[in-house]
Specification:
mainly alpha, about 120 residues, 6 helices
Length: about 120
Amino acid sequence: MPTDFRDGKNFPRRGREAIGDALWLLRMADKGRAAAAGTIYDYIYPCPMDRGVLDRWGVTPEAFDAALERHSSDDALYGWLTERVPIERIRSANEWLLREKIENLDRQDAEEGAMSQDRR
């Protein structure tokens, strides 16, 4: 997945795109990797939604950044998350996204040209 968003044609993965039970992880990983590489362009990392998910997981932005440095694959990053965060916290973050932040998800999808049919 590209992590250079400077061309306006590549975007972080959708917040609705799950890996295992976790929503938002892939999007936040893309943005975190882009921020570390200096290719994030006008995205914000960690943005308020990143912080909201991290808070619900009980993970600090610093701990997440360290995990990104140690785990280059999505599967390894997901493994790191599930070793540290109980499934109830992951589901709580998902619920927060899908109930309280659904308008943000819809807006991101529209701005980035993602299909709006998958409204989890």
